[in-house]
Write a structure and sequence with these properties.
Length: about 210
Amino acid sequence: MLAFPSKKISKIIEHLINPEEFWTEYPVPTLSLDDPYFNAEDEYQSYWNGRVWPNINWLLIETLVRNKSYKEARILIEKTIKICIASGEPQCYENYNPFTGLPYITHNIFNYGWGGIFNDILIIRVFGMQMDGRENILYFFPFLFPHLKNFEIKNLSFGKKNFVDFYFKDGKIKSDEKIKVIYGDKVKEGKEITGKIERIDKIFYFFDI
C-alpha cells in the first residue's frame, strides 16, 4: 500500500467510482460489472466474480488514505460499514452481495476472520485510533470523520495492559486505566485526556511503526 503517482491513483479512482464498473450500492465487487464473467446471482459462479469481500475493501480504503484521496476514502468507508449492517444487525461474513449488501447463503462463513476487519476499519479509520502495543501508546487522530462526537470501545486489546475500555465524548478521551496518548500532535498521559485535531496532513500509520 505504497503511494502511487498521481496519474495512477486518479485512474484507479476513476474506475472505482464508475457505477458501470465497481461503484455498486454496496461496493466493491471483485469483478467489474462490464466484464462478461461478472456474476452476482449464481451462488457458485459469483464467488470471486462479483461478490464483495471485506478484506479487499480494507486494502482499497488504506490505499486511498495513503494517497490522500480522503473524500473517496470516506465514502467507501461509509458504504463498507453499511454492508455489515444491511441485514438489520451487525454481521461479519466472508462475502456479500454488491447490490443488496446481504451475505450469500452458500460458500460463505459467519463470523469469518477477515469479515471482522469491519472492526479494524471502525477503530482505525472512523474512530481514528491506532495502538502501539509495544510502547502502550494510543495514537488518536480521527481526521476522516471530525464530526464524530462520541463513541465507546470496550475490551480492546492494548499491549501490556491487556484489555482496556475507551470512551470519547466532545473531544475528551477517558479510559479505565492510565494511558499515554498522542492526540493530534501532542503527547498526553492519564485516565482523562483532552485534545484538539488541528492538522489533516499529520497522519500516523500502524504499519510504519
